[in-house]
């Protein structure tokens, strides 16, 4: 037994010797440790160097870390506060506005569920709105509107309000109804002014899509009608609700750009849809709609009688009878962005030029257009340059003596190489004029499920989503919410009738200049374009 | 100490240095992504051409998938980089790293006829640095050094301890 024990302990000893690891081996095994040490040290060093440079620039600019504004919750929500809204015209844009109000078509809800964006929509606030009327001349669109109004899926916890919804054949019937408190006008442009005037006179609050007017006379009429009424009016320019816009405002207020003497606003699109050719589906077949399903007379309204045309119905922007083309559809958003930031107001003079250079179809509106707006009192020129035949990305640029700012879906400021203010910092190497010294891109890497080229264009101008607390928020929702908050609590919406009037004058001047092929001026005494 | 006998110390040093360098690179790629709240693989994937373009589109079109891909990318790079430096699970890390890099290569390979909007920092024809790094990682997997200059040594020892008595019994 003793021998056996001895043998066993010897065995153990030799095994232990074999498996015991020498100090040298352990040290070798830990060879990675100093590498980690150096790595960590260098990462921290790089971080603090980056932050030092950033701080230097931010201190120089006088802006501290970006404060992302939180979404304002509506202040009152009494039970009697339920607002009954009717929508006039129910196309794609109306569906987007309905989503802002808290209503979604069941099919779109399914799509949103599939691409994982439904949760973002559901996290919108419940605005306590009921969709009680849809006015449409086209049966198919009316059905979509009704199905949307009846869908019981709502954001903000889901307990939305579904009151009975009625289809109106004519907007006058809707305006006469006691079941409507406010209207959202989303028809083709040639109806906007008259509908707004009639709605205001019927005492309904109005949210109207751009462009508000098509002629100078309409502008004065609609201005007077809204001005002399007690209704809350908002025009559909949602840019001011983008977080980026708030940033741009801060930058302008702090005079970071120096004296701004030129602003370049642009449009570049290069697709048929972007050029307002939208009457064919993806397979090249005409989209639905004919004389039987569309009330063509009512669609034309006061415009010259022409036979039914699917082309005119879907692509109305192409004709001056129904719109002012690029000016009314896209420049209005650009003007609003600039006017909300700088309050430039009505220009002294405008020169427009351009032509139909690419889309040689039956259109009247130009596909290449430049409009130059002079503001001598502000020492400033606003230039709008648009092409529907090239998608080269050109931003919206504010050019100052010390720096330029480009902003759309993101914002960047680049110091000017010949700046007076940043001269020292440039020579010290802290500010590099060849790349942005400050940029802010809250949505980078986030998905908006933006698919079509036209949607991408809107996204790039900051007109679709903004980011609050890390999640995308629809700016249209924020804009329509502001209107509703003003109806309930008083106050002026951002794009009120004054801003709309200034925009209307600028647009009419640009349009008149293009049509009459001459420089037009604003007479501030007679309040007329001459 | 079998590996030691197979390689000269110069060969071993070169292999370990290569392991540290690639580990450092991948670890910092991961850390940089982690520290940048705005980073996403979307821009890289949007540029995708060639055989993985459909796959990339699928990732982009689905924000849930994209978020997962971003998360796995960041933490995958950190884990692989750290494992290479530490020499822990080195063979697994090297092979996973090689596969990951090979996928990066396939997303944007410099094939003839493919044009990318983002300019590359060098000039490449079919072969680029990503592919070379992937193959270098394969080389490291084939010549593992983790059990000598790395924490895999402890794993090897642990395995030996478990194995030894078992061997005794069978003898």
Using the coordinates above, name the CATH class of the largest domain in chain A: Alpha Beta
Number of strands of chain A: 18
Radius of gyration of chain B: 19 Å
CATH fourth-tier homologous superfamily of the largest domain in chain A: Dihydrodipicolinate Reductase, domain 2
Strand percentage of chain B: under 5%
Question: CA-to-CA gap between the ends of chain B?
Answer: 23 Å
Spans where pLDDT lies below 50 across 5 or more residues of chain B? none
Order of helices and strands of chain B: HHHHHHHH
Describe this structure in words.
The complex is a heterodimer of chains A (530) and B (171). Chain A has 530 residues and is an alpha/beta fold. Chain A folds into two domains: 79-239, NAD(P)-binding Rossmann-like Domain (Rossmann fold, 3-Layer(aba) Sandwich); 243-278 and 315-469 and 498-529, Dihydrodipicolinate Reductase, domain 2 (2-Layer Sandwich), CATH 3.30.360.10. Chain A is built from 18 helices and 18 strands. A ten-stranded mixed beta sheet of chain A has the order 14-13-12-11-7-10-9-8-17-18. In chain A, a hairpin with a 2-residue loop joins strand 15 and strand 16. In chain A, helix 4 (92-101) packs across helix 17 (475-489) and helix 9 packs parallel to helix 10 (216-227). The longest helix of chain A is centred in the first third of the chain and has 30 residues, at 32-61. The radius of gyration of chain A is 30 Å and the shape is globular. In chain A, 41% of the residues are buried. Residues 76-80 and 445-450 of chain A have low confidence and may be disordered. Chain B has 171 residues and is mainly α. Chain B has one domain (2-170). Chain B has eight helices and no strands. Chain B has helices spanning 2-6, 9-35, 42-46, 53-60, 63-86, 90-107, 129-142, 152-170. The longest helix of chain B has 27 residues, at 9-35. The chains are: A alpha/beta (530), B mainly alpha (171). The interface between A and B is medium-sized, with 26 and 37 residues.
């Amino acid at each position: 037994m003793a021998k056996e024990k001895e043998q066993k302990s010897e065995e153990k000893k030799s095994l232990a010797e074999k498996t015991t690891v020498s100090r040298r081996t352990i040290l070798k095994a830990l060879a990675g440790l100093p590498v980690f040490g150096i790595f960590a040290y260098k990462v921290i060093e790089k971080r603090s160097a980056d932050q030092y440079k950033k701080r230097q620039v931010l201190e120089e600019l006088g802006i501290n870390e970006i404060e992302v504004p939180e979404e304002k919750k509506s202040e009152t929500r009494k039970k009697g506060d339920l607002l009954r809204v009717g929508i006039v015209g129910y196309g794609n844009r109306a569906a987007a506005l309905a989503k802002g109000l808290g209503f979604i078509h069941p099919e779109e809800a399914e799509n949103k569920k599939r691409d994982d964006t439904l949760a973002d929509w559901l996290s919108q606030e419940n605005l306590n709105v009921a969709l009680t009327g849809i006015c449409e001349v086209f049966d198919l669109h009316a059905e979509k509107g009704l199905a949307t109004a009846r869908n019981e899926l709502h954001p903000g916890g889901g307990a939305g309000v579904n009151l009975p919804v009625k289809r109106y054949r004519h907007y006058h019937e809707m305006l006469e109804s006691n079941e409507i408190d406010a209207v959202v006008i989303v028809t083709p442009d040639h109806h906007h002014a008259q509908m707004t005037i009639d709605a205001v006179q019927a005492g309904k609050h109005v949210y109207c899509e751009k462009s508000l007017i098509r002629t100078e006379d309409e502008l004065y009429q609609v201005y007077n009608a809204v001005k002399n009424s007690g209704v809350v009016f908002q025009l559909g320019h949602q840019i001011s609700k983008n977080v980026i816009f708030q940033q741009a405002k801060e930058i302008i207020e702090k005079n970071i750009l120096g004296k701004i003497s030129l602003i370049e606003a642009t449009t570049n699109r290069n697709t048929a849809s972007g050029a307002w050719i939208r009457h064919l589906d993806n397979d090249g077949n005409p989209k639905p709609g004919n004389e039987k399903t569309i009330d063509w007379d009512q669609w034309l309204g006061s415009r010259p009688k022409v036979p039914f045309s699917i082309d005119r119905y879907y692509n109305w922007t192409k004709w001056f009878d129904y719109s002012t083309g690029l000016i009314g559809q896209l420049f209005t958003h650009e003007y609003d962005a600039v006017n909300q930031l700088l309050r430039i107001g009505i220009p002294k003079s405008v020169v427009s030029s351009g032509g139909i250079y690419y889309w040689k179809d039956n259109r009247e509106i130009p596909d290449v257009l430049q409009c130059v707006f002079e503001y001598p009192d502000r020492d400033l020129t606003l230039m709008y340059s648009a092409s529907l035949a090239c998608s080269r990305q050109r931003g919206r640029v504010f050019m100052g003596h010390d720096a330029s700012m480009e902003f759309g879906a993101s914002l960047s400021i680049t110091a000017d190489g010949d700046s007076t203010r940043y001269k020292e910092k440039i020579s010290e190497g802290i500010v590099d004029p060849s790349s942005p010294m400050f940029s802010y891109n809250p949505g980078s890497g986030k998905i908006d499920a933006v698919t079509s080229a036209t949607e991408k264009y809107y996204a790039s101008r900051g007109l679709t989503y903004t980011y609050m607390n890390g999640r995308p928020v629809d700016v249209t929702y924020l804009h329509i919410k502001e209107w509703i908050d003003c109806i309930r609590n008083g106050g002026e919406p951002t794009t009120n009738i004054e801003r709309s009037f200034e925009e209307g004058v600028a647009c009419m001047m640009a349009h008149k200049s293009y049509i009459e092929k001459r420089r037009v001026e604003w007479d501030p005494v007679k309040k007329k374009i001459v | 100490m079998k590996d030691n006998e197979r390689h000269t110390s110069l060969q071993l040093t070169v292999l370990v240095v290569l392991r540290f360098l690639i580990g450092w690179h991948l670890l910092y790629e991961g850390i940089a992504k982690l520290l940048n709240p705005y980073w996403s693989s979307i821009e890289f994937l949007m540029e995708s051409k060639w055989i993985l373009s459909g796959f990339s589109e699928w990732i982009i079109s689905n924000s849930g998938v994209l978020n997962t891909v971003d998360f796995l990318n960041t933490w995958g790079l950190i884990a692989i980089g750290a494992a290479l430096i530490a020499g822990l699970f080195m063979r697994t890390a090297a092979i996973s790293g090689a596969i990951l890099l090979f996928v990066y290569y396939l997303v944007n390979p410099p094939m003839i006829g493919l044009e990318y909007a983002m300019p590359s920092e060098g000039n490449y024809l079919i072969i680029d640095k990503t592919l070379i790094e992937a193959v270098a990682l394969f080389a490291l997997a084939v010549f593992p050094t983790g059990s000598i200059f790395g924490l895999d040594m402890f794993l090897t020892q642990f395995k030996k301890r478990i194995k030894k008595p078992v061997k005794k019994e069978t003898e």
